[in-house]
Design goal:
15 helices, alpha/beta
Length: 421
Amino acid sequence: MSLPITGPLLEAARAAKPALAQLDHRAKGALLRTMADCLESAAPAILEANVQDLEAVHGTIPEVMEDRLRLTPARIADMAAGMRSVAELPDPVGKVRACHTLPNGLEVQRVSVPLGVIAIIYESRPNVTSDAASLALMAGSVCVLRGGKESIRSNRAIVDALHAGLRRHDLPEALVSLVTDTTRDSAAELMEAVGYIDLLIPRGGASLIAACVERSKVPCIQTGTGICHIYVDESADLDKALAILENAKTSRPSVCNAAEVCLVHKAIAPQFLPLLRERLVEQRSAQGLPPVELRLDPVAQTFIPGTPAGGEDFDREFLDYILAVGVVEDLTGAIDHINRHSTGHSEAILTQNHENAARFTRLIDSAAVYVNASTRFTDGGQFGLGCEMGISTQKLHARGPMGLEELTSYKYVITGDGQIR
């Protein structure tokens, strides 16, 4: 196999595995804490590189996408805190997942083991660089990072800081490798690097994910786009519903767990929709905040003014201050709509009816299903996983925020005393 761009890097990554395998839980934790310290010490250089990235793309991408790229001192502090939180988590490697003894006396254990070399292809968000590195290392795997061209300077500066931490522990820098070639050729090589990469994880837009899933010759976990729904039931607490919707849509609209669709029970639509428009459009405009563009289905248009929803607006990840709004007959209509249009990421019901909540959580086929809470909580850190490698929307091996447990495999260890078959 010819890998002219990534071949030397992948060879080095594979050769570095034994150095990581020798580290116990305490050593891995100490390494991550050192790397977090180095990250914070390098904050001025990282911020300078990030400014250069932002200047290079300014005016060519929407402001909300610039926000995905932007680093601040607070965000770098959060990145370091994420690494330290991973350092405190239990070691997923060597964990006995199951154990039983056969009638012949053989003891059979299923024990968690590292995957080996994990590659991540991602876009825009430079915080993924430190998140992915910390999770991979604690899970006992070497990490190969391939970010987008829009964040290459930031990613280089972050990896330089992580390498400083590795050097302090006399460990090879190849444990965390950055592919600096940001052409499609380097991504294609990673997808075909059989024998070098044990798992490929794409994080980004629908086209990137589709390309990886369709073209990869190495195992690939699908991290899906987020067409996240919030259904406001007939019995919902309207004040709580408004606060949840504003948070889910506007706290950070460019991320995959932001709400993109609001469905409203027809019985409360005349009362609730004007309140929704006042909260998301009028009040935000008066406060100097970006108003939310409401794209309304024909029934919603009879209650409030807004943009008529187009044919694809209920199947679109806007990643912007835009919310598709529809009116449904009842809970059954909401469930049917969501299961037809969802990407399987995160959905929420806002209701005071316990039976409706139970039915919604039972019948909605998504990775995360909420009752009376914002979809913005679908995040490894918020779920107590330290941070995440991505949000898996598939059903095999991993689903939802991917933390340490999802980044390991297992093997069987069988102990006997002379048994033969």
